[in-house]
Task: inverse folding
């Protein structure tokens, strides 16, 4: 069995706002979600970096029916439950309706650092009875399945910054192969803590600029590191015929996915972006598309000097003959949300296709010869028939999704 997979609902919790609309508007308006760290004192923690992209509103305030329980849910899981509520409503689902066949609904939600904040808070203390269920990586998918009564396939990839993309790719396989009719898929992370920020700070991976709004600069020649972020992206994946039968209008279709390893270094991408290049080629082959068919790239680009350059190498190699299509990294607005990043970007790509507007790359001002790409700097109204979204993570793990206009 091989069925077409469509995206019928979107949900976001990001530093630009706890909804798809607020996030989308912030992207088009060129708003930065970065600011001074307020969840703890960076000076007290002895950090060089003092900037992050933080979610403002309490997740419980944006989820209906008291679904968020901060006694048993870690912050990362609370984000997932809140974003799922928005995505299901957007898709027109009601768990009490005849369309909701619980055994045919799956959950696939990845995370990079998951309950790191909860683990850090519990260090040296006697664990509470709810400690493990607030910290384990799979509890975002677990809590979502419990709150919505989803009894189908359930998974939680922990593949660092590719986790959200890998979760969506696996969910698409579930739908395509008939293991589920609907899957709640995405990624979530909440690592703004002394240990979370401190770990990246110790690696000298973070921007140390004094200007929060200008700190994350994907592909820009003056980039000096990433800005750590938090949040969640959820997409509702559904078999096309199932969506058609209930009268749902898809945002986009997912037609291909790639998953590769660099087998090179724990943190540095492979020379010439070899792993990501192969991943892009694999995804396009899976979608049965030539590179010339791609109208837009939503890039992983985290604003690190080496990472962005290696991604540019990969894109240039794959689109050598046709030329790299208009390219955006939304991490200039949102920072790097680790395992949530690819899922947030997947939701944005689906909205990009539906709206016919490519969002800009914030803070791209000085082109870098090592990143010779057509970087989009203003909202661009255009027809996007095919788009790709790229992800890469520590351990040399890569993920790419191919989206098409339905």
Result:
């Amino acid at each position: 069995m091989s069925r077409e997979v469509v995206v019928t609902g979107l949900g976001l919790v990001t530093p630009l706002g706890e909804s798809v609309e607020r996030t989308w508007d912030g992207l088009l308006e060129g708003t930065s979600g970065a600011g001074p760290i307020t969840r703890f004192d960076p000076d007290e923690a002895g950090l060089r970096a003092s900037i992050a992209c933080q979610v403002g509103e309490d997740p419980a305030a944006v989820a209906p029916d008291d679904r968020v329980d901060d006694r048993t849910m870690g912050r990362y899981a609370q984000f997932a439950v809140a974003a799922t509520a928005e995505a299901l409503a957007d898709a027109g689902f009601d768990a009490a309706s005849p369309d909701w066949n619980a055994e045919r609904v799956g959950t696939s939600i990845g995370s990079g650092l998951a309950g790191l904040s909860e683990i850090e808070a519990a260090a040296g203390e006697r664990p509470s009875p709810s400690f493990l269920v607030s910290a384990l990586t799979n509890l975002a998918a677990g809590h979502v399945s419990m709150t919505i009564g989803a009894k189908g396939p359930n998974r939680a990839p922990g593949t660092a910054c590719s986790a959200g993309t890998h979760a969506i790719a696996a969910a698409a396989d579930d739908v395509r192969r008939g293991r589920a009719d609907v899957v709640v898929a995405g990624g979530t992370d909440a690592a703004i803590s002394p240990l979370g920020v401190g770990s990246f700070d110790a690696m000298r991976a973070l921007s140390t600029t004094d200007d929060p709004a200008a700190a994350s600069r994907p592909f820009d020649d003056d980039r000096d590191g990433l800005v750590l972020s938090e949040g969640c992206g959820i997409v509702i994946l559904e078999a096309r015929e199932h969506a058609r039968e209930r009268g749902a209008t898809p945002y986009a279709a997912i037609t291909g996915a790639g998953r590769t390893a660099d087998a090179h270094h724990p943190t540095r991408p492979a020379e010439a972006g070899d792993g990501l290049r192969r991943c892009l080629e694999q995804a396009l082959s899976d979608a049965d598309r030539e590179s010339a068919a791609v109208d837009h790239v939503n890039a992983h680009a985290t604003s690190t000097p080496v990472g962005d350059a290696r991604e540019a190498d990969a894109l240039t190699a794959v689109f050598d003959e046709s030329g790299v299509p208009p390219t955006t990294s939304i991490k200039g607005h949102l920072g790097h949300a680790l395992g949530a990043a690819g899922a947030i970007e997947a939701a944005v790509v689906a909205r990009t296709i539906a709206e016919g507007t490519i969002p800009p790359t914030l803070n791209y001002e000085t082109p870098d010869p090592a990143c010779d790409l057509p970087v989009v700097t203003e909202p661009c109204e255009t027809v996007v028939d095919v788009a790709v979204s790229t992800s890469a993570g520590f351990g040399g793990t890569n993920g790419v999704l191919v989206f098409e206009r339905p």
